[in-house]
């Protein structure tokens, strides 16, 4: 059946992409002030680093920011880079890996518990079925692809948790992706600190995930065209 000429872009999007966009939009709301006043981010980061000089306190603070990333407007790529710069690649990687993993598990677990109520309240039977099919078919790949992406990482975890993706399908991709992200950013942060270009590194850390988001969006659209749900 041909689509109506007046049909909006959102109406033409596959169900999973529409839901992912809605969840990502909700999670992005607290970040709006940070986008508006983004030029103050570096000053705030420097002040925070000067306040917490103890490596133990720094590690605990960075872990907490990453662990509660799903609830807080935290630019995790910047946090990971700072961890490498201030704690070194080994400790920084461990702190980042632990924080990212706890944060993902927390968001996923809470979403799984709330899933039945959310689907009953907000989703029609047809949408719930297509989202479940997507979770079963592409859930693992989506977790890996979105892990390094701002907002989409948390949105994918929450949405797949709501759809009831099994824990056994959750752990492997998340642990694998988080380990790579933690080591890469911590190494980047340590090198930048040693070479005294940390400010530039923080700018790259903020911009690079946005580029990855563009390519991930293209990948998701392609997969939905190949296997529309």
From TrEMBL:
Transmembrane residue ranges: 16-36, 56-75, 87-111, 170-191, 197-216
Origin superkingdom: Bacteria
Main location: membrane
InterPro entries given in the database record: TMEM64 (IPR015414), VTT_dom (IPR032816)
Residue ranges of domain VTT in the record: 74-190
One GO cellular component term: plasma membrane
Key words of the record: Cell membrane, Membrane, Transmembrane, Transmembrane helix
Annotated compartments: Cell membrane
Keyword Cell membrane attributed: yes
Topology versus the membrane: Multi-pass membrane protein
PANTHER family reported in the protein's UniProt record: GOLGI APPARATUS MEMBRANE PROTEIN TVP38-RELATED
Protein family membership: Belongs to the TVP38/TMEM64 family.
This protein's name: TVP38/TMEM64 family membrane protein
Species whose genome carries this gene: Bremerella cremea
């Amino acid at each position: 059946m041909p689509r109506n000429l007046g049909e909006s872009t959102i109406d033409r999007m596959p169900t999973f992409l529409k839901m992912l966009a809605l969840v990502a939009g909700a999670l992005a709301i607290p970040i709006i002030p940070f986008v508006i006043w983004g030029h103050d981010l570096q000053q705030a980061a420097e002040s925070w680093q000067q306040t917490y000089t103890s490596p133990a306190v720094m590690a605990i603070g960075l872990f907490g920011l990453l662990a509660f990333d799903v609830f807080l407007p935290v630019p995790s790529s910047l946090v990971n880079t700072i961890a490498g710069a201030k704690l070194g690649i080994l400790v920084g990687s461990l702190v980042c890996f632990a924080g990212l993993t706890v944060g993902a598990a927390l968001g996923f677990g809470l979403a799984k518990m709330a899933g039945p109520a959310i689907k009953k309240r907000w989703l029609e039977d047809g949408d719930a079925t297509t989202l479940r099919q997507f979770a079963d078919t592409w859930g693992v790949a989506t977790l890996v692809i979105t892990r390094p992406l701002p907002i989409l990482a948390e949105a994918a975890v929450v949405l797949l948790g709501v759809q009831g993706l099994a824990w056994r399908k959750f752990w492997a991709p998340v642990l694998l992706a988080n380990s790579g992200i933690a080591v890469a950013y911590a190494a980047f942060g340590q090198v930048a600190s040693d070479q005294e270009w940390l400010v530039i590194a923080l700018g790259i850390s903020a911009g690079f995930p946005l580029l990855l988001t563009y390519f991930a969006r293209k990948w998701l659209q392609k997969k939905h065209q190949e296997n529309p749900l």
